[in-house]
Amino acid sequence: MPRIELINVTKRWGHFVAVDNLSMVIEDREFVTLLGPSGCGKTTTLRMIAGLETPTAGKIIIGDRVVFDSEKGINISASNRDIGFLFQNYALWPHMTVYKNIAFGLENLKWKKEDIKNRVNEVMTTLQISEFRDRYPSELSGGQQQRVAIARTLAPNPQVLFMDEPLSNLDAKLRGEMRTELKRLHRDTDSTFVYVTHDQLEAMTLATRTCLINKGCLQQYDKPLHVYNHPTNLFVADFVGSPTMNFLDAKAKQVEENILHIEFLGLKIKYTSNAPVKLKNENVILGIRPEFLLIKEDGSIKGLAYSTLPSGMETTVKINLKDTILSAVQFGAVDYSFDQKINFDIIGKGIVLFDKEAKLSIALGSCEVI
Amino acid sequence: MKTLSFSKIWNKTKTFFSKPANIILLFFTILLTATVIYPLISLVLDSFMVQSISEAREINEIWGTAVKKGDFTFAQWPNLLFNANSEYSLYFFWQPLYKSVLMALLACVIAVLGGGVLAWLITRSNLPLKKYISAVFIFPYIMPSWSIAMFWENFFKNTNIAASNGMGILQAVTGICVPEAMVYGIIPCALVLGIHYAPFAYILIGGILRNMDANLEEAATILKTSRFKILRRITLPIVAPALISTILLVFASSISSYTVPAFLNANNSFTSISIAMRGLIITAGKKGQGYVVAVILLAFSILILTINNWFTRSRRSFTTVSGKSGQVSKFRIGNKPWIKWVVAGVIVVFVSFFAVFPLISFVLESLQETSGNYASMTFKYWFSPENFDVRITAQGQSSQGIFHNYTIWKAFGRSVLVAAVVALIAGTFGILIGYAVSKNRRSRVANYVSSIAFLPYLIPALSFGAIFFSLTFKEGFQWLNVSSTNNEMSAVAICILVASIKFLPFASRSGTNAMLQVSGEIEEAAIITGCPWWKRMTHVLFPIQKSSLISGYLLPFISCMRELTLFVLITSSFSLITNVLQFYDVYGMNQMSNAINLLIVLFVIGVNFLINKLTGASIDKGIGG
Hints:
The complex is a heterodimer.
Chain A: E1 4-13, E2 16-26, E3 31-35, H1 42-50, E4 57-62, E5 65-69, E6 74-75, E7 83-86, H2 98-108, H3 113-126, H4 142-154, E8 160-164, H5 172-189, E9 192-197, H6 200-206, E10 209-214, E11 217-222, H7 224-229, H8 234-239, E12 246-254, E13 259-264, E14 267-273, E15 283-288, E16 293-295, E17 301-310, E18 314-321, E19 324-331, E20 341-346, E21 351-355, E22 361-369
Parallel strand pairs in A: 3-9, 3-10, 7-8, 8-9
Antiparallel strand pairs in A: 1-2, 1-4, 4-5, 5-6, 10-11, 12-13, 12-15, 13-14, 14-22, 15-21, 16-20, 17-18, 17-20, 18-19, 21-22
Chain B: H1 2-17, H2 20-46, H3 53-63, H4 76-81, H5 88-124, H6 130-137, H7 139-142, H8 145-156, H9 169-174, H10 186-211, H11 214-222, H12 227-255, H13 259-263, H14 273-283, H15 287-319, H16 337-355, H17 357-367, H18 380-383, H19 390-393, H20 406-439, H21 444-458, H22 461-471, H23 482-485, H24 488-502, H25 504-517, H26 520-528, H27 533-544, H28 546-561, H29 577-586, H30 590-615, H31 619-624
């Protein structure tokens, strides 16, 4: 069964390094998202696994077959890697009908006519596009085109499915629906999915594991919620989560093995780390997720309501704390008037402490104002 | 260590050749270097070579040297450029060059003004009858430029001019005699060339105006900018690169035009640089000096290409604007509705005059025993089996009526053969180059191939012919020389070779444009399904861009059918239909040459129409892109 392994894969264009010495394993039947800002190398990575781009160096294994090895000169073409690829712009052939678009690939694989017919009808039924079989892509809406593209990709029963930002051209509502269906599709097809996105919400909600990439380097590769709760560095903490994590420059002093005293914006805090920590540098950054700022009347920290953004189910409150703007999330709809006084506390055991210089996370713990 | 580096190189090579685009690039790098760069170098070398015994004698006389045929010499250049001996250089080089530059400049102004204004009117105003005007306006570009020249002569010639052969239509109908300078010489040549290239300007500029995001102009309208100011400050600067391109391309084609000055040059009143060059190469036995002229014309063209590239490079960002909004509010011509109809009427008359009238004039001229004498109408030049001119029959050729004339039909057949094979080669090469270039946009090899493929466009047709003419004297290539083999198939073979390269630029341009418009993902989606390369080309890429790719075949075909300048050195007087036309013209058989002209123009327009109806391809798609 297809397990994908990348070993020290590098891609350079001249002096520009798109992917830098990337190693990762995608287990069989996983749904892995490659997540990162645009231009970070995630699409390049995907295209290299698919065989559409030739790596400068490294080794790629799909299943028990080495599909690329720069040392041994192995480079199996995309058509022989038994994969499916869903393109961002769908890449439907404009001069072929929906039926022909789906059948064309099967014809190239030399399927029997009867089998082609049955299989195309089957996938068209699965994706509910049977009524469009004789239409041309230009006669379909974006969502319908997307379904045709998925049907075309699924038709040859690929064991691995690659998707390059497949939902970014759809409107918000449709995108939500397609997300639900893709997740079902992953279970129904019983194959491995690799999915590129810059939308952290998509990565969080779909994936069994998510791989964060920045500037061609792997940042963290873990289950989505683990990435959310245990970011390894500042980039990951900042990129994952919406509204983003609050970052506060602070000075720390070791008191006990797992207790630090931290000062920021004139506040003094006792930080209790969940595990023993050894402080190397007094300059730290405190990372607080918005849900860990609890607004309540007897809260020990005093700020002003800078702006309130209620969305119905929840409300994002921007708090002005001595000219630093913090985000807090409150369940339900609330509306504070501008510059109203607000009291809040820092709660929970998921407050992250980063080393300011190395930009790496050094501890996870809870805070208490002293 | 050594084996490792070898295997690395081997791996790299393997990866390189696993992509069809790379193989194509390599193939064309070699092919185009051999067919474009090598002849260029050999032409330059030939201009430093003593070409004949008479040349050697002349050089030895003037310079006191002892060179013989085939020797290297620096004497050709000063002999042509700075020979004050009875003002030789002035008459054979400087004056023709000066006149040609003047003619080309005038032609540019006419083409750009005419084509540009019409493009603006068609895309940006409420002019009525747009469809008819834009369809008919293309005609002069489809027609051979010299057929317009012939029409010009047919229309304006008159009995007041000694060189005129009979009465023109204007005199016959109205009795008006225009002065000689309006019929023969630099002014009519420039006008005819301007009219021929105006559609070219119209297609280029109109293409940009059409693709230009109307929001750009609308944004200015909302900011209360006046119509005129929008045109001056927004539209013109955006169109400027296309405008400059047009000017340079028209200039490059006009300066070296051979046929138009050849037809509108009664009693040698106007010797253009290309006529001077042909004279040097063919008649005076001064091939070496002829090659010097060819090199100078070439240098002009390369300079023009460089300027053009410089302009389009620094401004390219403007031109690739295509927006969402399709319609701009149209400029209203005049404040009364009848004014626009008057404007349209004037344009229709003007356009029809150069598009429809020539055809009528060719018919009339082919039917008159004496030009201008409508009482002397006869069908004999079409139907009579008798030979009209013994001088022609003495050369073993026919001078019978068109339908009995084997000289004409054999040549016509050869022309169609040449045009069809050239279209096939150039069109297919164009698609392949377009594909390979679009797949390797940033690579240096791709850049090299695409500029070399465009270079032949700027090499003046006569110089280009001269390059291959000189080749046919070289060891191993003599079977291509029709005057030594006396076999017309030699001419056909070399014409196919020369024209395939000369007309490659159109095809590779339209191929590249078409391929760039198809997103790479379209092909990748087919790669993943295991579709082999040739099937991706024939089943995916070609059908998607069918109409513009077929234009890539159509353009070389049409250009080849009507070409004379390019072939004039490498053919005999009877090889191709255009040769035969010129041959009858030289022998004063006006009726025959007009009839042949009619045949060519109708054939070309017919093919264009047919292809357009069958496939949707048209020549403006090929150039405009």
